[in-house]
From TrEMBL:
Keywords: Chloroplast, Plastid, Ribonucleoprotein, Ribosomal protein
GO biological process: translation
GO molecular function, one term: structural constituent of ribosome
Subcellular location: Plastid, Chloroplast
Database matches in NCBIfam families: rplS_bact (TIGR01024)
Parts forming coiled coils: none
Main location: plastid
Name of protein: Large ribosomal subunit protein bL19c
Pfam families, per the entry: Ribosomal_L19 (PF01245)
Any one GO cellular component localisation term in the record: ribonucleoprotein complex
Family: Belongs to the bacterial ribosomal protein bL19 family.
Amino acid sequence: MQLLENHEIFYKKKDLPDLCVGDTAIVTIYLELPKEQAEGEKKEKERTQAYEGVIISKHRNTKEPNATITVRKVSQEVGIEKVFLVNSPWIKDIKIISRARVRRAKLYYLRERTGKSARLKRRF
């Protein structure tokens, strides 16, 4: 049990913004390419990829070591949801672009909405 607690303390991020449901966020993650795709190099290539969308749910408090957020984006009229472990070492950065005023803890109803009905009211 102590080993697990030490691991959680080691990977805990201290510079996280205050994540709320309804926020539009950019999550930047590290990706490693397999050795075959690294174009003959001996070491593995690493690059970053940005994922921008609305936080539709938050599981556990983001201060806990195993907290997750679900981010939804619409790409080419297809909704894509991705679950991120907030304190994962594969996450480089999380930036909040805008905040929205919502009345629900989970925004799963956005899955059925399209167009203008899927917009959220901005919080100033």
